[in-house]
Specification:
The chain is mostly helical. It starts with 8 loop residues before the first helix and ends with a helix. The radius of gyration is 17 Å and the shape is elongated. It has eight helices and no strands. The protein has helices at 9-17, 29-33, 37-44, 51-66, 76-85, 106-119, 125-134, 137-146. It has two domains: 9-85; 106-146, no CATH class. Helix 1 (9-17) crosses helix 3, helix 3 runs parallel beside helix 5 (76-85) and helix 6 (106-119) crosses helix 7 (125-134).
């Protein structure tokens, strides 16, 4: 049985950061079999660095890729193009897995959600819920202090 080569996720994320629209076209057949837009989205939407870059990637990837990623699952090149469209092309970032953090209690979770809704009144409730799972109360307090709020 022939061993298939997997697509290196970090190679793919670098191509997203550089907005390499032709990256998918240049993949070998084996690498195309290993392509996963879902993994690209989960890794691509979360970056280390300043808050502005983190916020941009999260919102942009949601806007360009997440909304219709599964509607176009029979078109992997189109999925690739939606991932690339979400990048600001400001250099390469260290991407991290976008998982969900466990909150200590529902009261803490509700407090975080309430505060996020105050900070981002134009966001949809679903977006606030996702953002709320990614941060802790300590992170939120630090962020509001940096922004000059109480």
């Amino acid at each position: 049985m022939a061993k298939t080569s997997k697509l290196d996720i970090f190679k793919m994320l670098g191509a997203v950061d550089r907005k390499e629209y032709t990256f998918y076209d240049n993949l070998s057949d084996d690498e195309r079999k290993g392509f996963s837009a879902f993994l690209g989205l989960k890794w691509g939407a979360n970056v280390s660095g300043n808050n502005l870059a983190q916020h941009y990637y999260l919102v942009s990837m949601n806007n360009y890729a997440n909304k219709h990623l599964f509607d176009i699952n029979k078109h992997p090149k189109l999925q690739w193009l939606t991932l690339v469209a979400g990048s600001p092309n400001f250099g390469e970032y260290r991407h991290e897995w976008l998982g969900t953090k466990k909150q200590s209690s529902s009261k803490v979770k509700n407090d975080i959600k309430k505060r996020l809704m105050e900070i981002y009144p134009l966001y949809k409730e679903e977006d606030i819920d996702v953002l709320g799972t990614m941060i802790t109360k300590k992170d939120l307090k630090k962020y509001t202090k940096e922004c000059g709020d109480k």
